[in-house]
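Dear colleagues,

As part of the handover before I leave the project, I'm documenting each prediction I ran so the next person doesn't have to rerun anything. This entry is a single chain, and its sequence is reproduced below.
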Amino acid sequence: MKIDEKVQQMVQRNYELAEAGREGEAVGFVFEHIWVTDPTLDVTGRFDVDPVAEYGQAFLESPFCQPLQSGAMPVPQEQQSERNAKLS
């Protein structure tokens, strides 16, 4: 699976979680004190961007770029702990 396909699948899952009222389970990363769950958009959510150009190392080290093991998505709870630590 190419990174673009994986990112799109993860973003779609994040939108589904949001629609179900489960935003806290979304996979993402912190960029300049902002929790990003859709790296294909800028931080305002209005403009399409190249995630590497826009977010750089933060995107490259995020779950969106981690290799999938057994086709499973990254565990959102682990990301939640990291997110909370970085935002505090």
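The longest strand covers residues 29-31. The chain has one domain: 3-87.

All the best with the project,
I.
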